[in-house]
Specification:
- The complex is a heterodimer of chains A (729) and B (321).
- Chain A folds into 3 domains: 308 residues, Rossmann fold (3-Layer(aba) Sandwich); 156 residues, Bifunctional carbon monoxide dehydrogenase/acetyl-coa synthase(codh/acs), Chain M, domain 3, CATH 3.30.1650.10; 223 residues, 3-Layer(aba) Sandwich (Bifunctional carbon monoxide dehydrogenase/acetyl-coa synthase(codh/acs), Chain M, domain 5), CATH 3.40.1470.10.
- Chain A is α/β, with parallel strands linked by helices.
- In chain A, the strands form 6 sheets. Chain A has a 6-stranded parallel beta sheet with strand order 3-2-1-4-5-6, with helices on both faces. A 4-stranded mixed beta sheet of chain A has the order 10-7-13-12. In chain A, strands 8-11-14-9 form a 4-stranded mixed beta sheet, with helices on both faces.
- Helix content of chain A is 37%, strand content 15%.
- In chain B, helix 5 links the parallel strand 6 and strand 7.
- Chain B has 321 residues and is of the alpha/beta class.
- Chain B contains 11 helices and 10 strands.
- In chain B, strands 8-7-6-5-4-3-10-9 form an 8-stranded parallel beta sheet. Chain B has a two-stranded antiparallel ribbon with strand order 1-2.
- The chains are: A alpha/beta (729), B alpha/beta (321).
- Chains A and B meet through helix 5 of A and helix 4, helix 5, helix 6 and helix 7 of B.
């Protein structure tokens, strides 16, 4: 922590403590130790002291003990030569300051100073806390801003208040800058301040800021079910606030020692400080989720910056577009005769390209159409299109770009009257006349992407900016970068091997149907449903750490050929409820993985051929093993280990790790034409890579035979390599 | 040769959850440590409880056979509750605040509080309060009820995966039991309990509603998911060992077969007996799959289940905590 800030905070804490002690001594002299103190309308006594000290203060005598305890937290005021007044000391000083503040506020009435007067509301009673505090906890209200001080002028004060209101952020105001207060500024502008408008002025002294923290503490005690007590309980209350109450401090105007001390106190709650002045910053995360003190922020940027620093997640309930939208419209087609405008298909160049940027390079929510809009061109016009999406997020990784980009298809299929097909540079997008007449414009494609990306991926996407290029020049200029990115992403996927990572992902999404089944997804073996690859698993875990996909450390290699690792086996044993102690990643004979019921294909050993066959789910006919897909599925599914039979995702066939323990791709003697078509060139390439370019044509399919005897004859005729490899079992 | 039983010992136990509280009578459910009804393998300290459903406004969609026992008290929750407990012997009552639904009367949260209060004053047993269904109104209504009836140990039905935070917060704040509802899906049941635990809810104050499919309408799915939840729970999974509540009556009486009058389907026989049979045939397998609370609509169905439970649980106290 900055020495300047830490020193100022500690000096301020001493000053606050001394003031509280002086006030207390006077109060005790005049009213005695048994005089009652407390805030009106609360069952939590002095809530900050109750939470931090663990003591219920009801009389001046109690307060004396509480202050004594907090006095003990105060570190010595640092001298020129002392170089260690760092984080811990400053935070302790901050806690002591809050205790002193609350003591001062509680004693004010005894000294004849009112807590609520003019437009100042004073501390919040429990009734309002119950009604409003729950909104902070359940997410209806994204957070609160404690505004400390005043703005340079009344207009700026109103602007800031409105910006915060617009985001549904509760605004607490307190303290002053040289006598001026934000609340007085709003009052002069005629702005209504109360709990209905979410603008709550606490008081003109810095000590009044403690009421905002009292509110936070009571939210934790009420809705978090936490009990005050000692140090451990106090820590729980602070952590609850860090995790659930998305609050931050806006430091407005010059900061004095006392404000630094107060700020140090709020950092204990995980509430960062955003300042409009040039104070030393404290950037690395530690107590707060991200930065602790961010300085020099312009007033108009404060709400956005604060939301970002605190990690507040905003959700839009209704996407502001003029047509209905939802998964129900996903499969909708826009016919030629209903067409208002179209992009791509075989007519124009159209592509979509999503990249991630550093946080500070994006303006969240910026949507631009560069080129003609829907109204600028004749009906049924064909325009080129580049959908250029830039995203930023604290937890975003370049690997997630392709996953997010792949979602553009479903997002843009959801508005009624918009048809979207394909991905990357093969897209085809149509907007219907009806949608256009309802007011839908090209710009709204950006609106949809902005809100869907933020709503569906809140854990990884914080900012989105969309540019829709609709003139050929711009589209052509951007295309090489997009094409290079597609290539690079494919290469990156290709380079991702099981050896290159130390973590695989589990998938237990199907345990409802197959209670002991769990998939292990590796970079080179995708989930058997074909829907989840390793990257999807990784992203799914980032998005929802309580979901069906968990990271599993490989751990020690037990068998490199079969593909068994200690970490994976331990996990499987546990996740299968003890049913399976071991899984082989590369074998269908020894400890094969289980299958739920969602597999794209079934692979099974064909005795008498030395090989295996693979049949896909769509195939209705007979197979050389004498069973149809559905009979095979019954044997394989349900989460059992059936050596010789497994469910697989189709793409696993062209993985370099395809059943390597059992002989690999050369064992494949029969499959369906559909599988061959789907894998096509990828399969040819794999045959070449294993040094058997002729293998592709030797693999039989249902057009050659569907029974074992003719298959064996065929394999002999074409000299299929499996025959020479010997029986598998 | 005599059959030798080899009882299986499970590492896990179902949590015991206490309903009611304060001056209200308390009832406990759960605590079993073997598969349902496997009395030879473990112990079941508490019997399954039988609840009757009452509504805030006269129900629009119940077949005549289901409303007949409630004639004179339909839409009068306090009187209906008294009849359910004193007249029909229900262990507890579920008040369904159906009339608060925006499309079915849109009664206010304050009306709901008044109804719940009236029922609490009328009967001494624990109360399940069912909201109008997921969404904002559900939260508005149940949050207000929870606050106004703090300390009564209500059972709030229900929080779901998409929307659990509000009800989690009020259950914690005012000491109620929360029902976690999942759509016949063990993963979601587990995930929701993890989320609730994360939101500071004590899992000893949570019941699972796995969502009931009525007889002929998915009962076997519910049965099978309940079995799996129970196997995982007894296997030691601390996120799935909550007791289970099933709304059997509602699902049974929704079935076409339960309500069609005799003159339309003469071969199906008297609709009154048919409806009750349908309800019993839905509820009984759920008890066999481990339901700790079954909510019913017809008192005769309750009486028949009671006889069955009396046979099975002769030795066990009726829900005494």
């Amino acid at each position: 922590m900055s020495k300047i800030i830490a020193s100022a905070a500690i000096r301020g804490a001493h000053a606050c403590m001394e003031r509280a002690e002086t006030m207390l001594a006077e109060a005790i002299e005049r009213h005695g130790r048994d005089a009652a103190i407390g805030f009106p309308g609360t069952a939590y006594a002095l809530p900050v002291i109750l939470s931090l000290v663990g003591k219920r203060v009801e009389k001046l005598g109690d307060l004396e003990e509480a202050l004594e305890e907090a006095r003990g937290w105060l570190p010595a005021v640092p001298t020129e030569h002392l170089w260690l007044p760092y984080l811990g000391a400053a935070l302790d000083a901050g806690s002591a300051t809050l205790v002193a503040h609350e003591a001062v506020e509680a004693m004010k009435p005894l000294a004849g100073i009112p807590l609520a007067f003019d437009f100042w509301l004073g501390p919040t009673p429990d009734g309002i806390l119950r009604e409003q505090g729950i909104k902070l906890v359940d997410g209806r209200m994204p957070g609160f801003a404690a505004c400390v001080g005043a703005l340079p002028n009344d207009e700026a004060a109103e602007q800031l208040a409105r910006d915060l209101q617009e985001r549904n952020i509760l605004v607490f105001m307190g303290s002053n800058s040289g006598g001026e207060t934000m609340a007085a500024q709003l009052n002069r502008r005629g702005v209504e301040m109360n709990w209905e408008t979410f603008l709550v002025p606490y008081g003109p002294d810095t000590s009044s800021i403690v009421h905002a923290l009292g509110f936070a503490c009571r939210a934790a005690l009420t809705f978090g079910g936490l009990k005050p007590g000692g140090l451990k309980e106090s820590r729980e209350i602070l952590l609850y606030n860090k995790r659930r109450v998305f609050a931050f401090v806006l430091a407005l105007g010059e900061l004095d020692d006392e404000k630094y001390a107060t700020a140090a106190g709020t950092i204990n709650f995980g509430f960062p400080v955003i300042a409009d002045t040039d104070i030393p910053e404290i950037l690395p995360s530690g107590i707060c989720t991200y930065e602790h003190v961010v300085a020099n922020v312009a007033h108009r940027d404060m709400p956005a910056r604060a939301v970002e620093v605190r990690g507040v997640k905003m959700r839009t309930v209704e996407i502001p577009i003029p047509v209905r939208h939802g998964p129900a419209f996903e499969g909708e087609r826009v016919r030629k005769e209903d067409l208002a405008i179209e992009f791509g298909g075989k007519y124009t160049r159209a592509f979509e390209y999503l990249i991630s940027r550093p946080m500070d390079q994006l303006q969240d929510g910026l949507i631009r159409v560069a080129g003609p809009e829907i109204g600028d061109v004749p009906e049924a016009a064909r325009l080129p299109l580049a959908i250029f999406v830039e995203v930023a997020g604290r937890k975003i990784q370049p690997e997630f770009e392709s996953i997010l980009e792949r979602h553009i298809h479903s997002f843009l299929s959801e508005p009624m009257g918009v048809m979207h097909l394909g991905q990357r540079d093969t897209i085809w997008l149509r907007i219907s006349k009806k949608a256009r007449d309802a007011g839908f414009r090209i710009e709204h494609l950006g609106t949809v992407l902005l809100h869907k990306l933020k709503n569906d991926f809140p854990a990884i996407v914080d900012k989105v900016q969309v540019t829709l290029f609709t003139n050929a020049e711009d589209v052509d200029r951007l295309y090489p970068a997009a094409a290079a990115a597609y290539r690079q992403r494919d290469q990156r996927m290709g380079a991702l091997t099981d050896e290159a990572v130390d973590t695989f992902y589990s998938c237990a999404l199907c345990q409802s149907y197959a209670p002991n089944h769990v998939c292990i997804i590796t970079p080179q073996r995708l989930g058997l449903c074909g829907a989840y690859n390793w990257l999807d698993g990784k992203a799914a875990y980032e998005i929802n750490p309580h979901g069906g996909n968990l990271p599993v450390k490989k751990g020690e290699v037990l068998d490199p050929v079969l593909g068994q690792w200690k970490g994976i086996n331990d996990f499987i044993n546990n996740a299968s409820n003890g049913a399976f102690p071991r899984f082989s990643t590369y074998s269908m004979l020894t400890d094969p993985m289980t299958s739920c019921g969602c597999f794209e294909c079934v692979a099974c050993v064909l005795p008498g051929t030395g090989g295996i066959m693979i049949v896909d789910r769509e195939y209705q006919g007979q197979t050389p093993v004498g069973m149809s897909f559905s009979s095979l599925a019954e044997m394989v599914g349900g989460g059992q280990q059936t050596p010789g039979f497994i469910g697989i995702g189709t793409l696993y066939v062209v993985s370099k790790k395809f059943m390597t323990a059992d002989g690999g791709l050369a064992r494949l003697v029969w499959t369906t034409t559909r599988v061959k078509q789907r894998l096509g060139d990828m399969l040819r390439r794999r045959c070449e890579e294993i040094g058997r370019p002729e293998l592709y044509d030797k693999i039989a399919d249902e057009t050659i035979c569907t029974e074992l005897e003719p298959l064996v004859a065929h394999l002999a005729a074409v000299e299929h390599p499996a025959l020479a490899m010997g029986e598998m079992i | 040769m005599a059959l030798e039983l080899k009882p299986k010992k499970w590492p896990g136990t179902i949590r015991t959850v206490t309903l009611g509280g304060g001056r209200r009578r308390t009832l406990a459910v759960g605590g079993g440590n073997a598969l349902p009804l496997h009395a030879f393998e473990g112990s079941f300290p508490h019997r399954p409880l039988l609840a009757l459903e009452i509504t805030d406004t006269a129900p629009g969609r119940w077949p005549a056979a289901a409303t007949e026992p409630w004639q004179g008290v339909l839409g009068q929750p306090a009187a209906a509750a008294r009849r359910a407990v004193e007249g029909y012997g229900a262990d507890l009552v579920m008040l369904h605040l159906a009339g608060t639904h925006p499309d079915r009367g849109n009664r206010s949260p304050d009306d709901a509080v008044a109804d719940v209060r009236a029922v609490l004053d009328a009967v001494p047993v624990p109360l399940i309060v069912r909201g109008p269904g997921a969404g904002r109104k559900q939260n508005d209504v149940l949050a207000r009820v929870a606050e106004a009836c703090g300390g009564e140990g209500l059972v709030l039905h229900s929080a779901c995966q998409e929307d659990y935070r509000t009800l989690a917060a009020v259950a914690v704040a005012y000491g109620h039991v929360l029902v976690a509802e999942s759509p016949i899906d063990m993963n979601i049941a587990k995930q929701l309990n993890i989320l609730l635990a994360d939101a500071s809810v004590d899992l000893n104050r949570v019941l699972i509603d796995p969502l009931t499919g009525g007889l002929g309408y998915g009962l076997e799915y519910t049965y099978s998911v309940m079995q799996r939840i129970r196997l995982a729970a007894l296997g030691g999974d601390p996120m799935l060992n909550a007791p289970v509540v099933c709304l059997a009556g509602e699902e049974a009486w929704k079935a076409k077969e339960a309500g069609v009058p005799r003159h339309k389907e003469p071969l199906w026989g008297d609709e009154r007996q048919r409806g009750i049979n349908w309800e019993v045939a839905t509820a009984l397998p759920l008890v066999e799959a481990g339901a700790e609370i079954v909510v019913l609509r017809h008192p005769e169905a309750l009486a028949r289940l009671r006889r069955q439970l009396d046979g099975w649980f002769a030795e066990t106290n009726r829900g005494v905590a």
